Write a sequence for this structure.
């Protein structure tokens, strides 16, 4: 299984539809302060099932929808899709390629899709269950949080081992 | 289940000792259960001893040593349960040049198993990427993506059209 | 006393607006009392708006923007009550090259009033120092000091005897 | 007033007596990860009156005394002196130069000196009262804590303004 691409639309500073294609191996993402690099990480966490705005550095969930600039109006919707190559059937679903989509309207309504078929958030989190992927997974090393695994209390560190078990 | 956790814990522990020693070029480290009697509830302590230094609690490690220790733990878990992809957001910021090189060499060993997405400002880290993307904000507050060709000296942002779908 | 606090608060606020605008080359910022009625107990909120972006809570700022905003606040307080010396421990780590230059230019304006001790790994930051010290650990676990002459290209650690008293 | 020098003996990794002379302007301190740079900041905080081991990244106060390496035995004492130029009488004491010393024995006994005359910790903290210097002062920007002023709760931010008032 590998992460083929991410598509962002209306998510934080990504007001235009932007697609980023990844390769196996190492992809580096660079750019000036505040240009939107960590917003991409937030987008991945959101689709993988993040439930609280605080995990996405916001105070309300609407904070993830593009809220406008001096030249552009705020949008009413945020949508992010992650596409994976599933040729080795790592995800328990019978498709060669799996696209997971999450949408949020300013009204507060949420929608979730797996390969364009509507589903529940629970279906997405269950699909990723045994892959080591997830919102709090050890495989998402957030900015300035490298100390986090070391500084947290001994009880909190169990989570990493349980995830891997 | 208990047997499962115990097996995983011991595997991660073995890996952590090995990888720590390799990343620090010496020294030793360990992970121990705070309460041995109660495997399924106990917290987990980390002990680290950089080369030539006394064994001590990880809180006394320096910023760079802590980051390297956390990286060792991440890779130790990865060996037991590799997640298909991993996002590292400026994990190289606290590292000096020597430790950055050691981290890079270690990371290369994992790219066969997993895909890495690295956000960085450090030119030495960019050099190891298979593909490089630049996030720009030519229009204030609006994120866009461009593909970057890395010339050995300076990344030249290729203003060409971002990859169109 | 109330009058004293109010005077200081208003002075820092004016300074913060000015320095933020200079460091970010645009945009605006403010500090406000959460509870206007009760000056002596009220908490203090910080609002920041990088150039061209919408006014927002500081939690949504990026890593580098937050660092620059905190630096603006530090200098704003410094203008009101300069402390004789200031220690900055790797404050430049999250900054990109452009923001580092702006920070350096701002810092130079303060060196007439206060003394600065900067810990850094960044060669561009080292260049601005009047004097440079290297801390070494030639013997494992034992810190020693050497004075360093900065040649424009590489700091050459002068292995000469550290300054003997 | 300016900070002329610091002298460390037995404090954390400074087992040898080390003297660092500062100049007005900017002094940069460089060196590999874990070599002892932030330990110098801890030493300054300690002499300025730090009361809890946690402020110095330890769990007990003895953690600041050199605890040995593979080749050296632990020491029984830590001592740090800060020397200031007081020709402008910023410190309310009638000396041209003021040296403040703090000592800790492994037995737990503490000693404090101002210009080699024994005093209490209270005398030291009172002497620095109005200078903007102090353990939690805005003029000590610790490693990775730049976000601290921004992330803390509104009530906690008051402290900076009160300090400056
Ligand atoms: N809902 C939103 N609408 C518009 N812009 C937003 C929204 N949420 C966050 N932003 C913007 O995104 C920017 C932060 O981006 P991000 O944290 O990804 O930067 P970064 O590239 O990681 O920078 P750094 O190198 O400093 O870490 C902020 O400046 C903020 O204004
Ligand atoms: N009581 C002590 N005795 C001996 N060594 C100690 C003691 N306390 C801390 N140390 C050592 O000091 C080192 C940490 O030093 P410090 O945090 O100053 O590094 P640094 O130069 O700031 O590094 P970085 O660039 O990674 O931030 C640790 O490796 C630790 O072993
Ligand atoms: Mg970021
Ligand atoms: Mg440090």
């Amino acid at each position: 299984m590998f992460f083929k691409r991410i598509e962002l639309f209306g998510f934080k500073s990504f007001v235009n539809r932007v697609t980023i294609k990844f390769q196996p191996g190492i992809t580096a993402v660079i750019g000036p302060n505040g240009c939107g690099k960590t917003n991409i990480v937030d987008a991945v966490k959101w689709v993988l099932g993040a439930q609280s705005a605080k995990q996405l550095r916001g105070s309300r969930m609407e904070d993830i929808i593009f809220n406008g600039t001096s030249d552009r109006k705020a949008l009413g919707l945020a949508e992010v899709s992650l596409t994976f190559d599933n040729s080795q059937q790592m995800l328990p679903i019978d498709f060669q390629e799996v696209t997971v989509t999450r949408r949020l309207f300013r009204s507060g309504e949420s929608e979730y899709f797996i390969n364009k078929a509507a589903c529940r958030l629970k279906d997405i989190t269950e699909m990723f269950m045994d892959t080591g992927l997830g919102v709090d997974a050890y495989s998402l090393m957030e900015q300035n949080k490298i100390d986090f695994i070391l500084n947290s209390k001994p009880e909190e560190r169990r989570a990493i081992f349980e995830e891997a078990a | 289940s208990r047997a499962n956790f115990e097996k995983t814990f011991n595997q991660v522990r073995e890996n952590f000792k090995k990888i720590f020693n390799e990343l620090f070029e010496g020294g030793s480290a360990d992970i121990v259960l705070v309460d041995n009697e109660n495997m399924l509830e106990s917290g987990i302590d980390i002990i680290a001893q950089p080369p030539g230094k006394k064994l001590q609690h990880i809180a006394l490690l320096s910023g760079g040593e802590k980051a390297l220790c956390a990286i060792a733990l991440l890779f130790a878990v990865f060996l037991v349960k590799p997640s298909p992809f991993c996002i590292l957001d400026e994990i190289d910021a606290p590292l000096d040049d020597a430790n950055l090189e050691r981290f890079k060499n270690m990371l290369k060993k994992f790219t066969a198993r997993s895909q890495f997405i690295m956000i960085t400002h450090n030119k030495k880290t960019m050099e190891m990427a298979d593909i490089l993307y630049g996030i720009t904000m030519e229009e204030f507050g609006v994120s866009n993506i461009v593909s970057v060709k890395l010339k050995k000296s300076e990344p030249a942002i290729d203003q060409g059209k971002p990859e169109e779908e």
